[in-house]
Amino acid sequence: MVRRINGACGLLNRAILHSTLACFLVWLGLFTLIHYQVIDAAFFGFSSCANTEFEYNPHTASRPAFPPPENTTYRAPDTIDTFLNYNYRNHTDCQISSLDLHSAFSPLCRTSEEFIRAFSGGGRVGFNRPFIPLDCDMRWFTTQEICEIFSRFEKVIVVGDSMMRHVVGALNVLLRRDLGYGAVTNWNFNDQETLDCFCNHQMDVKACSVQGIFSTSSVLENDPDSLACSQPINLVIEMMLRFPLDPTEVIRFQDLLSSKKPKKPYAFVFGHGLWNDLDIQASLNWLDGILDHTLEKAPYLNPSGRHKHARPPLWPRIYITPNSAGVRKPDAWLVSQGDKALMVFEESVRVEAGKRGVDTLGTWNMSIQSTKYDGVHLDLKGNLIKAMGVVNWLNLIHVRDW
Ligand SMILES: *[C@@H]1O[C@H](CO)[C@@H](O)[C@H](O)[C@H]1NC(C)=O
Ligand SMILES: *[C@@H]1O[C@H](CO)[C@@H](O)[C@H](O)[C@H]1NC(C)=O
Ligand SMILES: *[C@@H]1O[C@H](CO)[C@@H](O)[C@H](O)[C@H]1NC(C)=O
């Protein structure tokens, strides 16, 4: 019985109709004829019909959304939890795996432009799920690699607001291999702070986020063993919020720069916006002010200071726009600092900063499907992704052009 049904279908398929529907109708007729006695046989007959029409064809199969990362040593860290040996990684209250933050795929972005577009346009499939850049991937570097990348620069100078302080905090978590207290000045903590400012709470408890680390030199002064890098590195933040610029902040900022060209290049990371209610003109004035003060102190960075046809000096600068808003952002701010304002601001910065030779790392798409504990700021996990974005940008700078 089984053979007859199969045979009938096969014959129809090959010689007459070549259509599953017809095959199914013939099968239905036979089924009515033979009825209950051959239920099993009919089932097998049907599946055999379907198989001849729907065979897997690798040439017509849709491309998987995320092909696996390249099978190379260079990409291997992207497929493991790079936090495995970080301090407090195994603490019950600090279960953060790097694999929860970023999901690796191929191909890897090759240039800075590719990476910036991929990061700014990437997103997540589901709330708080791993971040996936758009079209090409970023690296998830190990601490050893991050140390090497930082060591290519005289200084990595971050200028901005609380969002940038959090990015610096997350970078220090990576540089100190410490998920528990890497972002904060735990060397002067009392018992209460040690309890309160742990892991994710380094950022999401206000009293703790003001205990952020501001410079590598303060780590070297207070807790040198906590720095994982064997080579010299220098990461520093100057908090500058207001426009017009505060003269004491400007002096402190200029003191970070050498008036003679140093051996290695500087890299500048800017972040601003919310303090001026996303007034694009205020943020551009802020940026222009800082760029002018930079050139005042470090004229060797001036793009128009050399012969007309010479390559302009290497002056790597990136602007990180504020991340998306969360449900806890107060209603009173929804017009001035809500998601629409944030998205328009990000686009405007991309255009205007670009005219000044400053790259823009957008964070709206990366952050929309993630926790903003106060409606404004990302927690440690979100900031670790921003921080790894900064490291990827640094890695793609051609420092040999210095
Ligand atoms: C990756 O490459 C290594 C060495 O070339 C090989 O042994 C391994 O089977 C490869 N893995 C996959 C998933 O292709
Ligand atoms: C955490 O546990 C894993 C697996 O047991 C281990 O390999 C790793 O070294 C531990 N990390 C720390 C910091 O103790
Ligand atoms: C990401 O989000 C912004 C909104 O902030 C949008 O304008 C932009 O086009 C998106 N994509 C990319 C690639 O930046």
From TrEMBL:
Keywords: Membrane, Transmembrane, Transmembrane helix. The chain crosses the membrane at residues 21-39. This is SGNH domain-containing protein. It comes from Exophiala bonariae. The lineage of its organism: Eukaryota, Fungi, Dikarya, Ascomycota, Pezizomycotina.
